[in-house]
Write a structure and sequence with these properties.
The complex is a heterodimer of chains A (613) and B (356). By secondary structure, chain A is an all-alpha fold. Chain A folds into two domains: 210 residues, MetI-like fold, CATH 1.10.3720.10; 312 residues, MetI-like (MetI-like fold), CATH 1.10.3720. Chain A contains 29 helices and no strands. In chain A, helix 3 crosses helix 23, helix 5 packs across helix 18 and helix 11 packs antiparallel against helix 14. Chain A is globular, with a radius of gyration of 27 Å. The two termini of chain A are 44 Å apart. In chain A, 42% of the residues are buried. Chain B has two domains: 228 residues, P-loop containing nucleotide triphosphate hydrolases (Rossmann fold), CATH 3.40.50; 112 residues, OB fold (Dihydrolipoamide Acetyltransferase, E2P) (Beta Barrel). By secondary structure, chain B is an alpha+beta fold. In chain B, a hairpin with a 2-residue loop joins strand 11 and strand 12. Chain B contains eight helices and 20 strands. Classes of the chains: A mainly alpha (613), B alpha+beta (356).
Chain lengths: 613, 356
């Protein structure tokens, strides 16, 4: 009895000994709205202060402020050249979207079918191109499509043509380059929603008598359409806001609206005109998103895992539509039978044709990287493919090129600082959006993704004007803000998904065993979120590391970042030194991806083993 | 409409793994056959081969008089209920059920009539315009069943269809499925790892272990006359005591149980001198105060190690030498034996079999 009392005393003393500061902190954190405010502030400040306000400023500027003149808008739509640029933008956007969807769909389908080891190998082949800078990939296409590039050389060697075909500086070149850039994204966006379709549904259709073609058209395809549609919207809004690829691969007649904005802003110094063009681009993008939101939940486009699986869209199907379908049925069946007869010989059980096709697509995705690698060992001092001989001269040059080293180090520094800030701000934002009870949660989640909805060129323009006003332009901080703004949405998406699948009873368990709120966070929550944090940070780093447009506008007189240095050199001259630098970056990116995958696999294995699966 | 199914020497290899070995099974028209086995025993693989989702590595499958191993699933004319139902989420209940008819180009009026009949059969007529995710698990199950039978399939496959339902619903659906099967006189192959389902529903049960058919028999025979130690221990509770056959007397064997006790038992093909396992169900064993029984062939004496009161019966564990014997005694007001009481346990020769 006495020992029991003594024990109780000790326990009481221990509780009494908790330092006051911690009590104060815990007390603060215990209040829900204070906690909510603290974690919401950084992301809201970032989004409102550096996106909403700058955008309002340029929109205001496009009508010359209180003058409220719409003359610049009139000029955009009356001027023959401007109008054709608009049309060209939409045309290329459509073509690129359609092509990437068509090419990506079978690959995404195959990814849902294969077992995990094959999946991680194929995924790696898609991830490496995805995270290799747009600029590097575009540079590779400049070589491949060039007058003396591998395509023309092969065709001449085969005797099919006598003169090199003009592939570079054509719409064809732009489309090929952009499809290459967008394809990995298209595959992953579709895969992430297709993977949740129950494969037994297609199986059930077959055993119930549907031929493979019918099972596909009537069951699988309709179920996968939301994923296809969201990928399509994403492809389209990215492609109409694209700058690098059309600028480098297209000819003068392939100018897109982004180039118009950049020219107005940097060369012609016609600010109001560029604001108006930027606003038109923004408006088109928002219109498309609004249109899309009628059919799918918008957040599905960027993070399919957040969407509850409902078929509200299917239910609102109008009577007219289903009547039309009914009338079409005999024709539909006939077409299905025809396709069935044609495809039957190809539909083997182990999906050999699908594999062959996927390997072709992977080849298309990786070929540019391979070309760059081979060129980096060229003995020639020009960009000739295939290289006449092997030498290490370009790698040696790279080893001694101090300007490249400076750019590389500056980019790494910028990327690391941006990634740290983006991860902290984005993670806090994700906690706020997932853990607190908010009245307009969905709208706020979409708002936190807004930097992904506004075309980068528009963000760059707006931020440029804004930072010039508040004297941040040309400073390191100004640059970091731009990069953080672009990478925060990715962090939010990844962390929100991780938090939603997080078992909150683990935190309750920690609390009941005596952990204070900050200890729960440090000892339980964050360690379990480690793989997601790592992925988010890596993605933020790579976003910054590859970024060109914002950098071009914000850099001022600082050291050039790697992409900017690249950009300048490409425009100046194509030389194999660029290949060596690109190859080096590709190696780094691959290593980073492999490390992240490895850490994730290790973490998954450990945590699932402890649960006893 | 119902057809026979015949599996001839079916084999399935996954790489070096032999998951289905020498399957030889005849299912008669209108018969309800259950594949019963632990998870990983190959029962689902066998079902997938009948459905056509997997190609057998060897052997032949006959549906009626035609071999179906080279026929794609959609031409087999088999109905199937999936474990998670696999209802099409983008179609209404009626559209789901009409699906098999639609892909077969059945006329609209006939489709309508058949869909209505199938929905009535599963008592879901008023739900035809709902979407699957607006239904409960049991309702989805019924729709899946309606969809599988609407086109009068020659054979109905069911892959653990009751696994996802709660207990009460499961009992109810068992009866429903049996009713529908009898009403339509359908040939059914049912896969489960739950012995209760198998015993209640099936005409015959095919017990599968490690890819092999270990015994095919009706519920009664499977329970009382297992031919295999695995079946004896997998279906119901049983005592398996090590024994040796000393002498054979007109089909029955004089055996030595454990180290010394002697007994008599039916044999299962063993010869003199063979050792094996003496199988006897706990409910076939009587328990007495020690020495009170003499007129039965098999008597062992021991000490009560535990006695559990389970309501309708009492479950004893009696230690006899090195062996523990489980006894289940119906409670009819007799006195119960406390732990440590010396007792005799006895059973009739006809209730025990020597298994290898």
């Amino acid at each position: 009895m006495t020992t029991l009392l003594a024990k109780r005393k000790v326990a009481g003393a221990a509780v009494g000994n908790v330092p006051r500061s911690k009590n104060l902190l815990s007390g603060l954190l215990a209040r829900r709205w204070i906690r909510g405010t603290i974690i919401a502030t950084p992301i809201l400040v970032l989004l409102v202060g550096f996106l909403v306000i700058p955008l309002s400023i340029i929109i205001w500027g496009s009508v010359e402020g209180s003058k409220l003149t719409f003359s610049h808008y009139v000029r955009i739509f009356s001027d023959e050249t401007n109008l054709s640029v608009m049309l060209q933008t939409l045309k290329v956007g459509f073509a690129v979207t359609l092509l990437s969807l068509l090419v990506a769909y079978p690959v995404a389908y195959l990814l849902t079918q294969i077992e995990s080891r094959a999946l991680s190998i194929v995924t790696l082949f898609i991830l490496v191109p995805l995270f290799t800078a747009f600029l590097i990939r575009t540079y590779a296409w400049m070589i491949i499509l060039g007058r003396q590039g591998p395509i023309n050389n092969t065709l001449i060697w085969l005797g099919i043509i006598d003169e090199p075909l003009p592939l570079l500086n054509t719409t064809f070149g732009v489309i090929v380059g952009m499809v290459h850039v967008l394809l990995p994204m298209a595959i992953f966006t579709m895969y992430s929603s297709m993977v949740r379709i129950d494969h037994n549904a297609a199986r059930a259709a077959q055993i119930l008598g549907a031929k493979p073609v019918q099972a596909f058209f009537r069951v699988y395809l309709p179920l996968s359409l939301p994923g296809v549609f969201s990928a399509g919207v994403l492809m389209f809004i990215i492609s109409i806001g694209f700058y690098i690829t059309p600028a480098l691969l297209g000819g003068p007649r392939d100018a897109m609206i982004t180039q118009l904005i950049v020219t107005q802003l940097t060369t012609l110094l016609n600010f109001e005109m560029s604001f108006a063009s930027a606003f038109v681009l923004l408006l088109v993008t928002l219109l498309i998103l609004f249109f899309a939101s009628l059919f799918i939940p918008l957040e599905m486009i960027w993070s399919s895992s957040t969407v509850e699986n409902t078929n509200r869209a299917a239910r609102s199907k109008s009577q007219l539509f289903s009547n039309a379908k009914q009338a079409m049925h005999p024709a539909l069946t006939a077409v299905e039978h025809l396709i069935h007869l044609i495809t039957k010989p190809f539909l083997t059980r182990n999906a050999r044709w699908l594999w062959a096709y996927t390997i072709l697509v992977l080849l298309f995705l990786t070929a540019p990287l391979i070309v760059i690698f081979m060129l980096s060992f060229s003995s020639s001092s020009f960009v000739v493919f295939p290289p006449p001989g092997i030498s290490l001269q370009w790698w040696e040059k790279l080893l001694h090129a101090s300007d490249w080293h400076e750019s590389f180090l500056f980019s790494v520094k910028l990327g690391a600082v941006s990634a740290i800030f983006a991860t902290i701000i984005g993670t806090m934002g994700a906690f706020w959006l997932v853990r607190t009870t908010l009245p307009i949660k969905r709208a706020l989640f979409l708002f936190s993704l807004s930097p992904l909805m506004v075309p980068v060129i528009v963000i760059a323009t707006a931020l440029y004007m804004f930072e010039a006003r508040i004297h941040l332009l040309g400073s390191f901080a100004g640059l970091v803000i731009g990069h953080v703004l672009l990478s925060v949405p990715y962090v939010v998406v990844i962390m929100a998904a991780a938090l939603r699948s997080f078992d909150q009873s683990l935190e309750t368990a920690a609390a009941i065993h005596g952990a204070r709120p900050m200890q729960v966070l440090r000892l339980v929550t964050l360690p379990l979120l480690k793989p997601a944090l790592l992925t988010a940070a890596l993605l933020a780093f790579l976003t910054s590391f590859d970024e060109l447009l914002i950098t071009m506008f914000m850099i001022g007189r600082q050291t050039l970042t790697l992409p900017f240095k690249f950009w300048n050199d490409i425009k100046y001259e194509l030389n194999p030194l660029l290949s060596a630098a690109s190859a080096f970056i590709v190696l780094l990116v691959t290593a980073a991806i492999l490390t992240t995958l490895w850490i994730k696999v290790r973490h998954d294995r450990r945590t699932s083993a402890s649960i006893g699966q | 409409m119902s057809t026979s199914l015949e599996m001839k020497k079916i084999q399935k290899w996954y790489g070096g793994l032999h998951v289905v070995r020498d399957f030889d099974l005849n299912v008669d028209p209108g018969e309800f056959v259950t594949f019963l086995g632990p998870s990983g025993s190959g029962k689902t693989t066998a079902l997938k081969m009948i459905a056509g989702f997997e190609q057998p590595s060897g052997g032949d499958i006959m549906l009626g008089s035609r071999s179906i191993v080279d026929v794609p699933p959609y031409e087999r004319g088999i109905g199937m209920v999936f474990q998670n139902y696999a209802l099409f989420p983008h179609m209404t209940v009626a559209e789901n059920v009409a699906f098999p008819l639609k892909v077969r180009n059945v006329a609209k009026a006939e489709t309508e009539q058949k869909v209505r009949r199938a929905l009535e059969l599963v008592k879901m007529g008023e739900y035809r315009d709902r979407f699957p995710n607006q239904l409960s698990g049991g309702q989805q199950q019924r729709i899946a069943l309606a969809r599988a039978i609407v086109f009068d399939p020659s054979l109905l496959l069911m892959d653990e269809p009751l696994g996802a339902l709660d207990r009460n619903l499961r009992e109810h659906m068992k009866i429903e499925i049996m009713r529908i099967q009898k009403e339509l006189n359908m040939t059914v192959v049912f896969v489960t790892h739950d012995q209760d389902e198998a015993l209640v529903m099936s005409d015959r049960i095919a017990v599968i272990n490690e890819g092999r058919l270990v015994q095919v028999a009706d519920s009664n025979n499977l329970y009382y006359n297992p031919t295999n130690r695995f079946v004896a221990s997998f279906v119901g509770e049983s005592n398996l005591l090590p024994c040796r056959v000393d002498r054979i007397d007109s089909g029955a064997g004089k055996v030595t149980i454990g180290d010394h006790a002697s007994g008599v038992s039916r044999l299962n093909g063993q010869a003199r001198g063979d050792s094996g396992w003496l199988f006897v169900r706990p409910e076939h064993i009587d328990i007495w105060p020690q020495g009170a029984v003499t007129d039965v062939e098999n008597v062992l004496s021991g000490v009560v190690e535990s006695a559990l009161f389970l309501g309708e019966l009492t479950r004893y564990v009696v230690r006899c030498g090195n062996e523990s014997i489980t006894v289940k005694q119906q409670n009819r007001g007799q006195t119960r034996f406390a732990n440590g009481t010396p007792v005799s346990v006895s059973w009739n020769m006809g209730n025990s079999t020597v298994l290898n």
